[in-house]
Every structure is written in structure tokens, then in C-alpha cells.
Inverse folding.
């Protein structure tokens, strides 16, 4: 009963929910008990998206893996596939990709050594082709990159164009992109980006295009992860994620160009963060499934079980990986992965243990895969679906998270919706508040991080020096850019670019013109220039 | 001496937009009485120009990428304002930390506590 | 005193270098002006009275109105005409910590490394009017160093912003759609201050209503004194050329009508008063800090002296000190 026992310490979850010493049957709210009895794979799905859980569908091992030149990244992806990764993520260089710059843009030239540090430079379909060399496109689940909204149409069209050139039927092509508002407008605000309303248009365009041409593709993936790693707590992450989904669904409803159920299905592949509060994070995944079902039924009268079962990709919290004593992070990665697995996620990426030091080294990448393989193969965790289901504690926590998350969702709606809460900076303030509170708690000793606030003096026998990246990414990218410009069919490229610009201005679906532009070897920077002239810049509500 | 009227320039050398860390640091410095001039993601020559025009007492660089970009910014600032101290935070791998410290720059990697960063600013600006 | 002779020499040298185009020297001198005191007075002495060459435009509006972004696009237009532009961007000082976050440069990357643009962020350092004490002096310094156009960006709308008007030749007030209530609430202040209204974020809902509110508020003014209303979407650069044209035409109108000359006269008055204010305040601070008021404070506290008499005594002492400072 008392949340304040044992040396006067207050026991809370990471998001500040009060915890009791132990939980009893009466603690589980009456209204929640009926959900507990429903087996996995049945609505409201809080006990699992699929009836047989990991027995038939083990979670997908899905690691971020980009750096260097396209051929370096290709090599790393193939290495990971050999290690047992079951999907792959193409990571584009963020200096060029996020901003839609070519490497000869002055802002990139000024930081030429950064090029290739966070992903491979892909400025034209030729680069994407190199990066995708010999990858099993038709059979494995590919992530085309394009995490930032303005970059997504290029990244997706590039991937699809290469797949088409290889003779893969787009109608059968599996995979995903991201095009995430949390990353673009909250977590990692680029120096220049299209305004949120144009971003919403891009995402709706992608959803429409996939609905017509790529039915097996998950067109967008809302990544609460990026909100959480910026400071949103567990229930804020949930509430904001579904507020984001509502923006997409309302836009599709307004357009009335595709069945709303299809759009809901498209939005139902989401991305959450798993952090260190083991039970709260596991409960969060369960709460998310319940909330999605509730949202669709209550707001859109959608009950189709193929649509209402939320599929979750989960990534462990990069911000919890410490710079100090980095090998400790292997333990942290394991605990966070366990939280995700106990929560029943469909795919998982574990941050590299050297995340706070540099981009992941090959060894860190391998460990991220190994952690998941050990959990899958050695712990018997896959045998029983929703192993925490029915726990008085976990069910109570799940119900409480759902309740708090809907409250936060309502607060966002009162702000005028998710986009408005980004435009005004309201959501940024919520994240920053929590961040300041974290710092305060670390100073006061309420929050302990081993190796950072306590036990600072361990000496590791292993030297982790940080991955250096590759030296020639910029030079090679520049050379290839010149080569594309020199050798492409110029008239075709300029016509395709002109057509793209008209579409951007007229408001038609951007994707067919983007496909043509990629096929005509129009480069990323040229496309970015069109965006900048047509859409201008988002009025960032934060000063950094 | 006090922090009143002491001016600190805060810049990000990379194009990576993680704003959380630098913002928290900037607020802590403001609360300690500094005037903090934020310039966001800035090229080395922009860092240099701002350090001149804003007549700052300290330059803080958040680095999110390759250390050589920061090294270039440091070189340009030092060329025009050799007397101005510089400190660095962000994702700084050990090899980069050694390089920066070799240049006489103080480094505050992830996990550094705010009071330590503020104390460094007080010391480096001579406000102590 | 040897020290102040030394600092006079230093500031003279700095001034000479700044006039010759050394931006580092210019920046240092602004800091000297911000710190106030003897050294600032030295700089002031080195600035000749105002020539006709410089023109100053004030841009003011509530936080979040998009001023910095607007100024960024306006700089582009202004550069084409004026060739070189200086900007003083003033943000509030936190009353608790006396620190400040000055973030205007974040939105001004297009001009961040240009030799034709000088940007200086200033904290208000406790001044209610939205302008730092040193802003006026800094403007005079910039003019003396040959900057033909000076923009001054300040936070806030309403009565407290009146001193923008007493410092600049053309005042631009930035509003957003949906601010009808604010227009009503600050009607008197806005009318008095604004030469041009900008409705920024003109792509947002509520544009027409705000425009109507503004027009009806302005209807009582004679036609020739009615401020222009310009619509902009600063994030897309839309309307910047219109705004620059409105500024140019206001400048032309007040130059021809002779109003510019009378404005400048008012500016001089305000500047001179401000200067004396600041120096007296510094003396007063010094008087209290050094214990010079202790006798009177004790006497008042003990009931031996009344407040008015104590005030008279201290005012006399203040004047004595001020005279001594000038003589020294």
C-alpha cells in the first residue's frame, strides 16, 4: 500500500507512476480484467498480436547498419545477414539524406569528414544500387531508409526502382520505410526541413502509392522511439504516437482516395523504445496493442482483426547506453531487449554497446545480434506467449499506462492535434521538462546510473576506442556525383525534375513523379532544391 | 568577479539535429548567470564569425560527428581570437577526446554532470 | 587617473580600428558599451554627433511571432539595396539569474558568415523597454563605423516597446493571424509605435480577421499616417520584398515630409536622457554599494531622520559624486 517504504525512498516507475510493495487481484481495475481472459491474437490484442506468438513468428532481428560508402554498408548488411539477422536496414548518410543535400552542398563540404559516419551516401539510384548489391530483396524484409520525412520519398523510390530493375515484382515486395514525424520534428530536428503540413502530405502520398502498387510494404512507421529518447515518458510516448496516427488517418479520410481500413493497416506497424524500467516497458507494449484496438474501434469503427492488431518494432534506448564503462551496455541491451520480448514485439534492434562513443563497430553490431539470439535460443522465452499476462502487477501497470496515455492523447488534441503540438513546441517542452528532471534526479542521487553516477572507478580490461568510420566516403561520393551528372541522359533528368516540381506545386501524389525522377537519375540535392523552393522551411519551435 | 555579463557561444559543428543535450546545457549556463548565444548547426567559419561579432568569453562546441570538423572550427576560432577558451561536449569517442585534449580543449562527454560543466564555464571565463 | 587614461587610449585605438572596418574591434567596443561606466563614456566621447548616413529600422513583436525568421529574409532584400546591414537582436535577461539565452542567430544562417552582415545578440540586462541600455549607443557606434542600415530586433508588443520608436526611424510591428484580441488590447500602444504592420505566418487561419481588426483599429488615423499592412510567410521568404518596399517608401515619405528630422531630434533627446539615466543609476548603485548611504539609512531606521530629508542628502551626495566623476 505504501509507496514510501524502505529508507524513505519513493518507489516509482521511470515515468513517475507510484508503485506498491506488492500487487493483489483487487489492484487490477475491474474494466481491465476482461481483457486478461482474451487469448493472444484476439481483440483487443493486449496479450499478443498473434495466437501462437514467437513459436511461429520469432521476433525479427533488425539492426541499424549504415556507414561509409554504399559498398561498405552493403558489406556490413551482408555480414549481419550472415550472422543471423532476419531483416536489414539501409541507413543513408544523415548529412546528405536528412537535408536532401548532395555532397557538394556548402553545408556538407564544411563537414566533409562527417560524411559517411552515420550511413552510406546515396545521392542517386546508382548509389542505392551499389548498396543493395546481392541482397535478397524478394525474401527478406528490407528497410529502405528515409527516416526523416522529406527524405523518405527519395529513399523509397530509390529502393523500389532498384528492385524493379532487378525484376522483383513490386506487388510482392516486402519491407518498410520510416518517414517519422517524431524524428524529423521532435527528436532530431534537421537544419532545414519541409513544414509539418507538407510532411503530412508526403506520408499520405506514400500510403496511397503503396496501397495501389506495394500492398506488402509498410509505408510509414510511426516511431515513438524518437519521442521517448528525446524525453517523453512511457505514457507520453504512447499518447503521442496514437495522436500522430490520428493525423495520418484523418488526412486519408479527408482525401477519401483509399479505404480507411487499408490506411489503418498501414499505420499499424509502429516503433517503440524499450528502456531500462523492465516491467513498465513490457507493460507499455501491451498497453499499446490495447490502445490501438480501442482507437480504431471507438474513433473509426474499425474492428477487422487484421487491422486492429498492432505490430511493434522495438529499439532499445540509445540514450541509456553510457559513455563510461561501455561494456556495461551489453547488460543494459540485454535487459531492454528482454523487456521488448516480454512485451511481445514483432521485431527488435539492440543498440550497440559503443553507441555513446561512436557509430557501432562491427563487434558491437555482432553483440547486438548475439544478445537477441541468446534470448531466443537459450532462455525458452519464445515458448509461451505473453508470459507476464495475468500478473497483478503487470496488468495493473498496463491499465494505468493506458489511462495516463489517453489523458496525454487528449492533451495533445486540446493543443490542436499532434502537428500543432509540434509546430508550437508544446511537445518539445514536455520532453525537455522530463530531461531536466532526469538530470536533477541524477544529481540528487534519486536516479542511479552505474559507471556514471555511481561506481565510477571500474577498470575494463577491454579498450573501446570508438569506431573511426571510413576515410574516403566524401571523396568517392563527390566523384560519383560528378559521374552521374556527366553520364546521365540530361534531358530526361531535367524533364523528370521539372515534372516533380510541378507535382510538388500542384498537390498531386508525389510518388509517381519521384519514381520517374529516380529512374532518370535525378540526384538527391536537386530534389531537395525543389522542396526548398516550393515548401520553404519549417518554423522550428526550438533554438539549438 | 561573477558570471554577469559573461558571454558564451554555443554551436553544433555537425548537421545532426539532436538538440536535447546542448539545450539542457545552455539553460544550465543561463541559470548560472551567463549570456548564452546559441547559433545552432554552424560551419567552422560561422563559429569563427560569431565568436568575433558576439565578443564571447568562451566557445562551447557540441560535436556529433567527426572530430576533424571540430578541430577545424577550433583552429579558425583560435586564429582570430586566440585568447578565447573552448570546451567541447557531445559524442566524443576516446580517440577524439585525446586529440581535443591535446589541443588544450576541455571535453565533456555524455554522462558529464551539469554542475561540472557550469563550474568549468565559470573557471574558463574567469568568473570564479 | 592613470587607469582611465589607459582605457581611454585603448578605446580610442579600438574605435580607430573599428572605423577602419575591424569587426573584432567593433564587437569589443559594443561589449565596452554594454558594461557601461567610464570606459563606455570614453567610447561615447569618441563618437561624433550623428550624421545623416545611417538609417535604423526597428522590428518588434511578441515572442513566437517569427521575427528572427522574418529578419533573416529581410536581410536578403536589404542587402541588395544597402550593400551592408548590421543587426542588433535584443532578447530579455532572466530577472532571477541575470543570464540570458540569445537564440536569434539560429534562424539567420543564410547570413551567418557574410562580411556584409554584422549580427550582434544583446541581452536586455534588466531594461523594461525591450532595448538594452547599450543598444542606442551600439547603434551610434555602428553608424560611426559606416554601417548604412541598422536593424534592431526586440521582443514584445505594447507600451513597454515605446522606446523602440524613440531609437529607430521606421518601426515594424510583427503580428500573426488570430491575434485580434492582442490588437484590441494593445491598440493605443500599437498605433503610437507602428509605422508598418506585418502579419507574418499569413498562410495560417485567421489572416482576414486579423487584417480586419487591424484596419478598423487604424481607421481613425488620417490616410497619410495610416501604417501599411504587409503579409508575409517568413519561412518561405514570401512577402519579404513587399516588406522591404514598404520600409523604403516609409523612409522616403518621412524624409520628404520633414518628419525624419523631427524624429531624429526626439531620438537625440531620448538618447541623451537615457545616457544620463544610466550614468546616474550607476553612480547610485555605487553610492549604496560603497556604504555611502549607510548613515542616512541608520538615521531613518532610528527615527532621527525622515525619508524626504534623507533623500535630499543623498541626492546632494550623488550630484557631488557625479560632478567629481566628470571632473576626474
Amino acid at each position: 500500500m505504501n509507496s514510501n517504504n524502505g529508507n524513505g525512498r519513493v518507489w516509482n516507475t521511470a515515468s513517475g507512476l507510484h508503485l506498491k510493495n506488492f500487487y493483489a487481484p483487487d489492484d487490477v481495475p475491474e474494466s481491465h480484467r476482461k481483457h486478461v481472459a482474451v487469448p493472444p491474437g484476439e481483440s483487443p490484442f493486449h496479450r499478443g498480436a498473434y495466437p501462437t506468438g514467437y513459436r511461429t513468428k520469432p521476433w525479427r532481428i533488425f539492426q541499424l547498419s549504415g556507414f561509409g560508402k554504399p559498398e561498405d554498408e552493403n558489406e556490413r548488411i551482408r555480414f549481419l545477414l550472415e550472422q543471423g539477422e532476419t531483416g536489414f536496414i539501409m541507413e543513408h548518410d544523415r548529412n546528405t539524406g536528412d537535408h536532401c543535400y548532395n555532397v557538394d552542398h556548402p553545408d556538407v563540404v564544411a563537414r566533409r569528414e562527417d560524411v559517411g559516419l552515420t550511413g552510406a551516401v546515396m545521392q542517386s539510384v546508382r548509389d542505392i544500387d551499389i548498396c543493395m548489391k546481392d541482397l535478397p530483396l524478394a525474401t527478406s524484409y528490407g528497410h529502405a531508409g528515409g527516416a526523416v520525412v522529406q527524405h523518405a520519398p527519395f529513399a523509397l523510390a530509390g529502393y523500389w526502382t532498384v528492385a524493379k530493375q532487378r525484376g522483383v515484382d513490386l506487388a510482392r515486395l516486402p519491407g518498410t520505410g520510416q518517414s517519422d514525424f517524431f524524428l524529423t520534428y521532435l527528436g532530431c530536428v534537421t537544419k532545414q526541413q519541409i513544414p509539418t503540413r507538407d510532411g503530412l502530405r508526403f506520408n499520405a502520398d506514400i500510403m496511397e502509392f503503396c496501397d495501389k502498387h506495394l500492398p506488402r510494404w509498410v509505408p510509414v512507421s510511426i516511431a515513438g522511439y524518437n519521442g521517448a529518447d528525446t524525453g517523453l515518458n512511457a505514457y507520453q510516448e504512447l499518447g503521442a504516437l496514437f495522436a500522430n496516427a490520428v493525423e495520418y488517418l484523418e488526412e486519408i479520410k479527408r482525401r477519401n482516395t483509399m479505404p480507411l481500413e487499408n490506411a489503418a493497416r498501414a499505420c499499424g506497424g509502429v516503433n517503440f523504445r524499450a528502456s531500462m524500467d523492465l516491467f513498465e516497458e513490457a507493460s507499455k507494449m501491451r498497453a499499446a496493442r490495447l490502445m490501438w484496438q480501442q482507437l480504431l474501434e471507438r474513433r473509426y469503427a474499425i474492428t477487422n482483426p487484421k487491422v486492429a492488431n498492432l505490430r511493434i518494432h522495438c529499439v532499445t534506448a540509445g540514450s541509456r547506453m553510457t559513455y563510461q564503462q561501455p561494456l556495461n551496455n551489453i547488460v543494459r541491451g540485454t535487459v531492454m531487449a528482454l523487456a521488448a520480448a516480454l512485451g511481445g514485439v514483432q521485431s527488435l534492434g539492440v543498440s550497440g554497446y559503443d553507441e555513446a562513443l561512436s557509430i557501432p563497430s562491427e563487434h558491437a553490431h555482432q553483440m547486438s545480434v548475439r544478445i537477441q539470439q541468446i534470448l531466443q535460443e537459450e532462455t525458452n522465452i519464445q515458448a509461451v506467449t505473453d508470459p507476464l499476462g495475468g500478473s497483478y502487477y503487470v496488468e495493473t501497470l498496463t491499465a494505468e499506462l493506458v489511462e495516463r496515455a489517453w489523458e496525454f492523447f487528449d492533451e495533445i488534441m486540446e493543443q490542436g492535434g499532434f502537428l500543432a503540438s509540434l509546430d508550437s513546441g508544446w511537445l518539445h517542452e514536455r520532453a525537455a521538462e522530463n530531461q531536466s528532471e532526469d538530470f536533477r534526479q541524477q544529481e540528487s542521487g534519486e536516479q542511479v546510473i552505474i559507471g556514471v553516477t555511481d561506481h565510477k572507478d571500474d577498470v575494463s580490461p577491454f579498450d573501446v576506442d570508438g569506431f573511426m568510420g571510413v576515410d574516403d566516403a566524401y571523396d568517392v561520393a563527390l566523384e560519383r556525383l560528378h559521374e552521374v551528372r556527366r553520364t546521365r541522359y540530361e534531358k530526361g533528368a531535367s524533364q523528370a525534375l521539372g515534372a516533380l516540381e510541378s507535382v510538388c506545386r500542384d498537390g498531386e501524389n508525389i510518388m509517381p513523379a519521384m519514381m520517374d525522377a529516380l529512374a532518370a537519375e535525378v540526384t538527391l540535392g536537386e530534389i531537395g532544391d525543389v522542396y526548398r523552393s516550393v515548401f520553404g522551411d519549417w518554423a522550428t519551435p526550438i533554438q539549438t | 568577479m561573477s558570471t554577469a555579463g559573461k558571454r558564451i557561444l554555443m554551436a553544433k559543428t555537425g548537421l545532426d539535429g539532436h538538440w536535447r543535450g546542448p539545450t539542457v546545457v545552455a539553460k544550465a549556463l543561463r541559470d548560472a548567470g551567463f549570456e548564452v548565444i546559441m547559433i545552432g548547426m554552424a560551419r567552422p567559419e560561422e563559429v569563427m564569425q560569431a565568436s568575433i561579432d558576439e565578443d564571447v568569453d568562451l566557445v562551447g562546441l557540441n560535436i556529433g560527428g567527426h572530430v576533424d570538423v571540430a578541430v577545424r572550427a577550433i583552429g579558425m576560432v583560435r586564429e582570430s581570437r586566440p585568447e578565447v577558451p573552448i570546451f567541447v561536449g557531445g559524442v566524443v569517442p576516446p580517440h577524439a577526446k585525446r586529440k581535443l585534449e591535446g589541443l588544450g580543449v576541455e571535453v565533456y562527454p555524455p554522462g558529464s554532470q551539469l554542475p561540472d560543466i557550469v563550474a568549468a564555464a565559470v573557471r574558463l571565463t574567469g568568473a570564479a | 587617473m592613470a587607469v582611465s587614461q589607459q582605457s581611454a587610449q585603448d578605446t580610442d585605438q579600438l574605435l580607430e580600428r573599428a572605423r577602419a572596418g575591424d569587426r573584432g574591434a567593433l564587437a569589443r567596443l559594443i561589449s565596452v558599451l554594454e558594461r557601461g561606466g567610464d570606459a563606455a563614456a570614453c567610447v561615447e566621447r569618441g563618437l561624433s554627433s550623428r550624421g545623416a548616413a545611417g538609417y535604423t529600422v526597428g522590428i518588434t513583436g511578441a515572442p513566437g511571432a517569427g521575427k528572427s525568421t522574418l529578419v533573416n529574409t529581410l536581410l536578403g532584400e536589404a542587402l541588395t539595396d544597402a550593400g551592408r546591414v548590421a543587426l542588433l537582436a535584443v532578447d530579455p535577461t532572466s530577472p532571477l539569474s541575470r543570464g540570458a539565452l540569445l537564440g536569434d542567430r539560429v534562424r539567420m544562417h543564410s547570413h551567418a558568415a557574410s562580411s556584409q552582415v554584422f549580427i550582434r545578440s544583446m541581452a536586455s540586462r534588466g531594461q523594461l523597454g525591450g532595448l538594452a541600455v547599450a543598444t542606442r549607443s551600439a547603434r551610434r557606434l555602428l553608424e560611426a563605423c559606416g554601417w548604412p542600415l541598422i536593424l534592431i530586433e526586440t521582443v514584445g508588443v505594447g507600451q513597454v516597446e515605446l522606446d523602440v520608436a524613440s531609437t529607430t526611424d521606421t518601426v515594424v510591428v510583427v503580428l500573426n493571424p488570430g491575434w485580434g484580441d492582442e490588437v484590441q488590447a494593445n491598440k493605443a500602444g500599437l498605433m503610437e509605435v507602428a509605422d508598418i504592420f506585418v502579419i507574418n505566418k499569413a498562410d495560417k487561419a485567421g489572416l482576414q480577421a486579423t487584417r480586419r481588426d487591424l484596419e478598423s483599429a487604424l481607421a481613425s488615423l488620417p490616410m497619410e499616417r495610416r501604417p501599411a499592412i504587409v503579409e508575409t510567410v517568413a519561412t518561405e521568404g514570401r512577402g519579404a520584398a513587399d516588406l522591404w518596399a514598404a520600409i523604403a517608401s516609409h523612409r522616403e515619405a518621412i524624409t520628404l515630409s520633414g518628419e525624419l528630422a523631427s524624429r531624429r531630434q526626439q531620438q537625440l533627446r531620448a538618447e541623451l536622457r537615457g545616457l544620463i539615466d544610466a550614468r546616474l543609476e550607476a553612480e547610485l548603485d555605487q553610492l549604496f554599494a560603497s556604504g555611502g548611504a549607510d548613515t542616512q539609512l541608520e538615521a531613518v531606521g532610528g527615527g532621527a531622520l525622515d525619508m524626504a530629508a534623507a533623500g535630499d542628502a543623498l541626492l546632494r551626495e550623488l550630484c557631488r559624486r557625479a560632478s567629481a566623476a566628470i571632473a576626474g
Remarks:
- The interface with chain A takes residues 12-20, 22-24, 27, 38, 40-41, 43-45, 65-69, 91, 93-96, 109-111, 113-115 of chain B (CB under 8 Å).
- The first helix of chain B runs from residue 20 to 31.
- The domain at 7-124 of chain B is CATH 3.40.50.280 (Rossmann fold).
